[in-house]
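Most newcomers find our protein records easier to grasp once they have seen one. Read left to right, the backbone structure tokens trace the chain's path through space. Nothing more is needed to start thinking about how sequence determines fold. An example says more than a description, so a record of this kind follows:
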Amino acid sequence: NCPAASLFDSNAPDSSFDVAIIGGGIVGLASSRELILRHPNFTFTLLEKEKELALHQTGHNSGVIHSGIYYTPGSLKAQLCVRGATLTYQYCQKKGVPYKRCGKLIVAVEREEIPRLKALYERGQMNNVQDLRLIDAKAIREKEPYCRGIMALDSPNTGIVDWQLVALTYGKEFQEVGGTVITDFEASDIKVAAESPAGSAEGLKYPIIIKSSQGKEVRCRFVLTCGGLYSDRLSEISGCSSEPRIVPFRGDYLVLKPEKNFLVRGNIYPVPNPQFPFLGFHFTPRMDGSVWLGPNAVLAFKREGYKLFDFDTQDFINAVSYRGLQRLVMKNIVYGMGEIYRGVFTSAQVKNLQKFIPELNPSDVLRGPSGVRAQALDAEGNLVDDFVFDGGKGELGSRILHVRNAPSPAASSSLAIAEMITDELEKRFKL
């Protein structure tokens, strides 16, 4: 774990920094590490609202190292995922972070899925994903003895890792080379200082004030926000646009009972349906030896609401009053109702999974953990599928960069995203 500082005297020299990064998830931590390695003479701080780092999306995901098959050729997502996966394996090897290159099968169980599977293979080839191959039913059983399908796309370079551990390793490295981590600091206001602090001979060297909800202050020259589920709100408090809006979707997992873990060796995924935004139920082995099944995707009534009945009035009103969400719901109402039904009734989820592993029974699974995904939506109800960066107007806008959307697979891409964000900061702020 990263020992965290608590610096609260806004006039103290060590509460002023060249760059402040808001958000201690995997994107914020990877970016902090990349920035300080490139600019060792600058001072950096990372501000995190929780008492620990990497607790939310980073600590609640499936743990897959994606290889970059799914994404539109030429898109940032495709480029960053392929490079990010390579960098992740190198980083884990170098730092001694445990991982497994256990592979993935994307399995067609119906004839009409085969053209989509072949198109996915072509897409993976265009994205330079290594060692992809199409395999038949016999080869599927050789790799996954309990899996049934008529054709599959075999991706041997897909792996698994504990992303929270990876993120904490980034944070540890950031601190070892001189970065400051301040936890329990929820940014509630970002503004330009009206005057220099009392007794300061430096004038307005650090013109930006970041105030926490508890009234603490940090001063800096430049700000990078990597707010995940709160990226739109961080943008708004600095005077930037409220769109794209973040709408939280909860994904609930099932877990195989330990005595049934033999049913799954590697990742098993369905052929994605292009009409729907999420990848569908999949089987994912974990680094601790457990096997997760799922997730579904339902609207969360709280941005960090991991339990079925978690509710936050502001988050709920914010989501349901948004025209973009209303349009998304109308376009996908049947699919959405199915997701809710499957979330409530375990047997309905298992029925989906039995298409791939017929031996699976409802009695073989337990309810597992949940994660909440920060889904960026535009006002027309379209899912924002690629990265969005935003600055602003005036003095404050010229000193701030918001990462408005870092979509899945942000963890797999984190080291490549960090390179891109650092390039962007260098260009905007002339670092």
